[in-house]
Give the backbone structure.
Amino acid sequence: MLVSVDEPGLIGRPAELSAVEALLDRGGGAAALFIEGEAGIGKSTVWGLGVAAAMRTGWRVLTSRGSQTETAYSFAGLTDLFDLALDEVGPDLRPPAREALELALLRRSAAAAPLGEREVSAASLAMLRRLCADGPVLVALDDLQWVDHATVDALAFALRRLPAERVRVLAARRIAGPVAASAVPDRSDLIRAAFAGDRIEALQVGALGGPAIARLLESRLGIALSAQDLAQLVERTNGNPFWALEIGAAINRHGSPDGELPVPRSLSTLVTGRLAALSPEVREVLLVSAALSTPSVELATTALTEIADNPDRTIDAALTAGVVQLSADRLRPAHPLLGSTALETLPPGMKRRLYRRLAAIVTDPERHARLVRLGATGEPDPDIAAALDAGAVAARSRGAVGAAAELAEQAATMTPETQTEDRARRLILAGELLFATGDAANARRCATAALAGSPGNAVRCEAGLLLCSIEYWADGAKAWIELAEEALRDAGDDVALRARAHAVIADLGLDAVTVSRFHATKALELLAGRADADPRTVAQATIALQVTQLDMGEGLDDELLRQAAAAEARAPLPPVTDRIATARACWLKTLDDLDGSRAAVEAVIDVANAEGDEAALSNLLMNISLIELWAGRYPVAVKAAEDAIRIGLEINILADTAYSVRGQLAAYTGDFDWARKQLPARLAITADAGNHRGMAHCLAAIGAGELLQGDAVAAAGTLRRALATLLALDVREPGRRLRLESDLGQALIAAGELDEAAALVTELRTFGPRSSAPTNRGIALRIEGMIEGARGNLDRATALLEEAAHAHEQSPIPLERARTQLALGQVLRRRRAKARARRTLQSALECFSALGATPFSDLAREELATISGASRGATLTAAEHRVAELVASGLSNKDIAARLFVSVRTIDSQLSSIYQKLGVRSRGELASQLAQPT
C-alpha cells in the first residue's frame, strides 16, 4: 500500500486512501482524482496524506492550497506550484516561457509589453512537460474552489495538452452539505474538462461513524464520551470530524454543564462561539492571516503594529490557541472555516477599516487595488478608481487578462461622472481585455458605453476602433466598416491614431484588396521615420500590405517582411496565427516553393503544439493539406484537411478553407459523395457570414467535382462564379485562388465557351510578375493549346502544349504536368501520331495512377484504348461506361461531349470502341444491353 490506513491522524478512511493509491498506481497518462465533501469532513486530511505518499514514492509534487481571500489574486496558486521548480528547471525552458513564468510569479518587473493570457498558459504547459520528462508529476490542489481563476485557467490549458504524460491531479474541493452555510463556487469544471472521462474520478468523502468519532476524540483530545453522548454528538454533527473536534475542544474548555453536550445547531454558530472566546488581539491575527491570504510573518507583524503592543507575542498566542498555523514563514488560518467565519462575522464598518489598513501596507498593485475596493463604501471615488486602474494594468502585464478585465470594469464603475475621459479610457481597457478573453458580449457593452460617453475625438476614435473589431470578429463583416470610417474621422490630426485606424481598416478589409492596400500604405506613410511609432500598428499595416501584394500577383517583398518582423519583435508576442514566421511559411506555397513551405509550416506547427494553440493548428493543418494537394501526396493531404476540420469543430471555428481543400481532394480522387454531403452547407455558411473569399474557395471545390463527374456546363457556371467573386476582390494570384483556373479553362472549352477561355488565358498572362512562374505559365499555355485544338488548329495546339509541358517540368505540381500530357496526347492522337500519343498518354496515366487521381486515370485509359482499338468482349473502362450510360439515356454525342468536357470527335471514337466491346451496332441495341440485369 502506498498509503496506509494506519497513518498517524487518519481514522476511518480506507476507501478514500484506496482511491488515492489507485490514482498514483494506475498506468497510462494523465488522470485526476477529486476529493469532494462538505466543510470540515476531512478532505484536506486525505489530500495531505496522498501528497505525503506521492513524495515518499518519488513523485514530483506541486502543491497549492486555495484561500477564500486569495481567489481574486492572479497566479497566487501558480506561484505555489512552480516557485521552487522554476529555480531548478527554469534554465531548460525556452526564454519566452521562462520569462512569462517569472513575470506571472512576480520574479521579474513588468515588461513594457504586457503578456497575453495564453503566454502564461503556454509557459505552464512547457513547465509541466519539462517536469514530466524527469518522472511522474502530481499536481495537488487543496480547496480547489478557492484557487485563483488565472491559475485554474493556466492549469486547465496545460493539462488538456498532456494526455500522454504521467501527470496526475489530486484536488480537494468543498461542496455544499448539511453543515455548509451556503453554496460553494465551483471552479473545478475547467480542470475536469482537461481529462478523458475514464481518466477522472470523483470521490465523495462521507461522514464518520460513532467508533471512528470516538477514536478521533480520544487520540486528539483525550476525551472519552459515554455511548449516549457519542450517539448524540454523531447525530448532531452528521459525523463531521471537524465539528466533532470543535465540540470536544469546547468540552475541554468549559466542561458539560448540567450533563448536556455543547452542541449548537450549526457549524457557523460553533465557530462563531469559539472566535468570541478569543482575545481581540488574537482574533486580529486570524483576521490578518485570512484577509491577506497567507501573509509572511513580517507583513503580519506590520499589520498588527497599531493593534497589539507586542505583535510577535500576539502571533505566538494565536498559534498556541490553534487558530492560525505557521508554515514556511507564512501564516494561515488553522482551518479555512475559521478565517472565513472571522471575516464574515465582522461588522461592515470594522471590515472596511481592516481592508483599508491592510491596503496601506501592501505594495503589489493588484492586491492593493483589491483591498482598496473591499475597503470602499461603493460610492465613486477618484483615488479608488485610480488604484483599481493601476491594479488592472499590473494584472494585465503579468498575463492575468481576466483579472485585469474585472479590475478595469470596477475602475470605470468607481470613476466619478465628472471624469468622463478617465471613465471612457477605463471602459476601453476593460473592453479590450474582455474581448481578449473571448467575452465579446461584455466587450461590446464596454466599447459601446465608452463610445457614447467619450468627451473628445481621440477617445472616441479608440472606442470606435475597438467596437469595429468586435463587430467584425463577433458578427462577421457587416457593420464594422462604418464604425472604422467614423473612427478615422475622429482621429483628426493625431498621427498615431490615424495610422492605427488605417491599419485596422487594412487588416479587416482584406476582402477588398485595393482598399486594404490604400489604407495599409497610408498607415505606413504616417508612421515612417517616427521613433514613437506603435510597433503593433506597424506590423499590422505591413502584413496587410504584403497580403495585398501577394493577392495581386506581386509575390513576396523581403524588405516588407523584414520591417514587419522588426516591428513584431518590439510588440507583445501575438498568437501563432498572426506571427510573421507563420504568414511567410504559408505564403511560400503560393510561390511554388512547396518543400520550403512544408518545412516552415511544420516548424510553426511544433511551436503551436508547444504553446497549445488549437486555432493556429487548424489553420496550419489546412495549409499542410493544400501543400500536399499540390505536391500530389493525396492521402497525407486528406488527413491534414480532416484534422484541420476536426480541430475547428472542437474549438468552434469555421475552418472554411479546410473544407474547400478537402472538397478539391474529393473531386480529384473521385470521392464525390463527400463533396455532395459537405460542400453545399459550407457554401451557405460562408455566404451568410459575408465571407466572399471563403465562398469562392468553396465554389472552386464544387466546380471541380462537377467537372470530373462529367457536367462541364454546370462546372463552367460554378467556377465562373468563383473566379468573378475573387476578381471583384482583386485577387489575381492563382495560388491564392486554389488554382481554380485549371478546372475553369477545361470546363469552358468542353462547354464550347472558347472566347471566354481565351479571356481567362489573357487574365493569367497579365496579372503581374508572378504570371511568368512555371506553374502559372504552364496552365495558361495548356488552356490556350486546348482552345486551338478545339478550333482545329492542331499544329498550333501541339506547339503550345509542348511549351506548356516544358514549363511544367519546372513546376512542383505533378497533377498539372500530367493534365498537360493528357491534353497533348489527345492532340497527338488526332494528328495520327499514334506512337508519340501513346507514350505521352501512358506517361500521364502513370502519373495520375501514382497520385490516386482516379477520374483523370479513367480519361487517360480511355484515350489509350481509342488509340489501340478494343477487342470484342473487352471490359469497358469507367469513362466508357459513363459514355454508354449517357448514350442510353438519350443524349446526343454533342451533348455528351459538352458534359464530359471533350470534343465530339472523342465521343465518336469512344462510342465506336464501346460498340466493338459490347458487340452492338446501334444506340438502341446499346440501351437494351445496358438495361439487361447483370
Confidence is low (pLDDT under 50) at residues 1-9, 178-184. The longest helix spans residues 457-475.
